[in-house]
Amino acid sequence: MFFKFIHKRIRIVLLIIFFLFFLVILKVAYIQLFQYKKLNTLATDLWSRNLPVEANRGYIYDINNLIIADNITTTSLVIIPNQIKDKEKVAKDLSEILDVRYEEMYRHVSKKTSIERVHPEGRRLNYDIANRISELNYDGVYLLKESKRYYPYDTLLSHVIGYVGIDNQGLSGIELQYDKYLTGKYGMIKYFSDAKGNRLSMSEVYEKPQDGMNIQLTINLDIQKAVERELDNAVAKYNPDSALAIVMNPNNGEILAMSSRPNFSPSNYKNYTIEQINRNLPIWSTYEPGSTFKIITLAASLEENTIDFNDTFYDGGSIQVENARIRCWKAGGHGAETFLQVVENSCNPGFVVMGQKLGKEKLFNYINNFGFGKKTGIDLNGEENGILFNLDRVGPVELATTSFGQGVSVTPIQQITAVSAAINGGNLYKPYIVKRILEPETNNVIKEYDKTFVRKVISEDASKKVRYALESVVANGTGRNAYIEGHSVGGKTGTAQKVKDGRYMVGNYIVSFIGFTPASNPEVIVYVAIDYPKGVTQYGGTVSAPIAKEILTDCINILNIKEDNVKPKEYNWNEIKYLDVPNVVGMKKEDAIKLLKDFTINYSGTGDYVKEQSPEANKRIKYGGVVRLLLGN
Amino acid sequence: MKKNIDVILLFAVIIISIFGVMMIYSSSSIWAEYKFNDSLKYLKLQSIFLIIGTILMIIISKIPYMYYKDKANIILLVCFLLLILVIIPGIGKIRNGSRSWFGIGGFGIQPSEFMKLGLIIFVSKYLCNNEKNIKDIKKGVLPILFITLLVFGLVMLQPDFGTGVIIVMSIIGLLFIAGISMKFFYITGIFGAIGAVILILIAPYRFKRILSFINPWIDPLGSGFQAIQSLFAIGPGGFLGLGIGNSIQKHFYLPEPQTDFIFAIISEELGFLGILIVSTLFLIIIYRGIKISLLSNDTFAKYLSFGITFQLSFQALLNLMVVVSLIPITGVTLPFLSYGGSSLLITLCEMGILLNISRYNS
Fold this sequence. Notes:
The complex is a heterodimer of chains A (633) and B (362). Chain A has 633 residues and is an alpha+beta fold. The termini of chain A are far apart. Chain A folds into 4 domains: 2-34; 50-217, Penicillin-binding protein 2a (Domain 2) (Alpha-Beta Complex); 221-558, Beta-lactamase, CATH 3.40.710; 578-632, Trypsin Inhibitor V, Chain A. Chain A contains 20 helices and 26 strands. In chain A, helix 3 packs across helix 4. Chain B is mostly helical and 362 residues long. Chain B has one domain (7-360). Chain B has helices at residues 7-36, 41-60, 66-86, 111-129, 137-157, 161-178, 182-202, 205-214, 225-237, 262-295, 299-323, 341-360; strands at residues 93-95, 98-104, 107-109. A 3-stranded antiparallel β-sheet of chain B has the order 1-2-3, with no helix packed on it. In chain B, helix 3 packs across helix 4 (111-129), helix 4 (111-129) runs antiparallel to helix 5 and helix 9 packs across helix 10 (262-295).
């Protein structure tokens, strides 16, 4: 009876014990099976130490996928203080190799942190130093691969590309603007460590870094190289204050090349002033454009039909506008001329008359529509606005000077964008330089930029007349130094006075040339401006036109532009003529000699008839050049 | 001594003891290497205790249990003397903030462990001799309660709260089966609650421990630290564990992993499956112990075997529920598995007593 009572209570106790055990097992199951993921993640975070692995920065390509901004791999020193046993010795050896003070190195190796870097002496190590450190083979001293920006062409396109800092972060140009695309995601070497920071002998986990996206520019590397070469030559030849050039596709606003002097080397950016680095002159500098601006007056006049090329005008060397006497650049004037000749001669009084015929409202309306006075919106940082007269304050004198490009201030990019619109059929496009954003490795297109149509400025018909007039300028007028045999070139020179402290400077000009080819169907347009060239007559025609010609010649080869019908050049007495070789094959020898009177003939073989000729018919060669004939019967 | 001993209990005890030494080695080697430059330090000590303990268990299983009934008063007296000695500075040694040890050479002896058994023997005898007075709280219960609270007080002077609770609870367990009216438990429950509140007021860190058990992440580097580190060991173990020897938490994340939190390391290395096996071994031992108590025809043997089994169960549960964050941290070791010489020794002796009682059962 008594035992029965005790047994009952013992059984109750046993049940409670079993129940509590069951609860414990349940809780373990809950922790291990249901909270597993969360706890495992947290615990792994606690156990693991991460050594960061730098990602490759995205490449910057030209339009043909040639690399302009590359990466090279370097090594950097990483210290894990907890794993270093003999701190004095490690600090001493490292301080000797890296040339850092011992006290400072000792501070690094004994710092209470999981991962320590020695900055900047321990970054971007050269092979020799890295080798010496790795030979020490100390615990807690590691060398990590790091990716470093490398510019294979050094100064080429430097203002557009920009530069990166020591952490591969973009600091200017495209590198800064597209930093979030170009920057990749760090990878990790994960290893487990004990609570004291010692590495555990368990397998490491390598998390691959995510490389940055690649950026493809509209730039054509070969054209860019030509531009850089020409600017270097110009600097060597004329020692100008500055020089710049832009090459563009006039039909869509794609920048094919852009450069300026002074430029900088992005890998040694510390040697340059911030102004030198940040001032991308083709979009930053503003100045009076001079005669290249006359294209705008011309285009407006042709669109409004206020002139006809055959109308005549008499230039007596100057024109009186209210109280001001405005002189032509040519002393004594050009005399009687048609308006086509006004353009060819870049005659100031003639353009003043064009402006007067338009009136200030119409002229300024066109100037605005061509995009002057405000940013073009090119996808680069640091663009300037330029300055126009306020319309209310434009009197007859301001109207007159504006007509030939004085009293307005424009940027080079505005100039080339506006002229592109004037010659491409009248369509203004926003200039742009970033073509595509591409996935790393696969280069799949993530984002693609296309031309941006802004507005229709003039009609196709007026545009055709502008092209015609500008081709005449090169064939017969002030732009003849840009004439290319076998290719039609249109263009306009400019010689602008520089303003300092509100006054025109004496003998100090920005000489420029804007040219395009083929004249009838432009595929490429070039703008060149040289600021204060020394030791030369400062005219756009003498300094800038030959440079533009060289660049255009390169563009013709690179872009494979076909020969076309060329407006025959009016040759000066000292210039070499080029002529088409007529077809003489199958003719009698005497007839052939008559036809080839402008050339030197070499014969081979004997006979009365021409069997073969070299060069072939319709090839252009110099006046007096050699034509070989194979004779037979 | 007509019958054979309980073989199932014997095997379960031997298996869990050997398993315990194995796990002590696995969990302590890193810590021992760091502290003593000897990764085998704890393995060696615990092995010696295991061998001595096993021999003692076998010997005790042959000593008739009635002997303890005769000597109960002397046993209790010796235990009292040791317990008083140990709290005297200069004699007792402080370890982990408690003056609870006698250092003899490299070994440590914890007198409170002896008292755990000594008091059970004494109370079993008392209950056995005062069967008729049990219903009378004044005559039957108060003397027991007085001695128990005296022991509790001495243990709290060390202080060792966990052991104190175990001692008090095993006596309450004995009183419960002896048939004391429930009214007593209600009253002690209320007093216990008041006592707990007072203890918390005396040492506010205890309250922090309670809070941190509900959400250890409130103070992850302070009072919640051990609970979180324990979860970080159990959780990643998953179903099959990281494999024996592969615990990461034993690398200084969980301090002294071979003691209170060894169950967490077992969970980490052997996973849920390992926990099921360990729990099964415990349940076998507890079940056999209770069975021995139920089958016993002698009142003293019944109380004694129940007291021993109940104390073992309660201590194991107290430890496990702390490790899995079911209750606040109390600082109690896990019988058979946690490192601790005296604890293993006494536990094995207790098993010897159970085995001896099992000989007399029909």
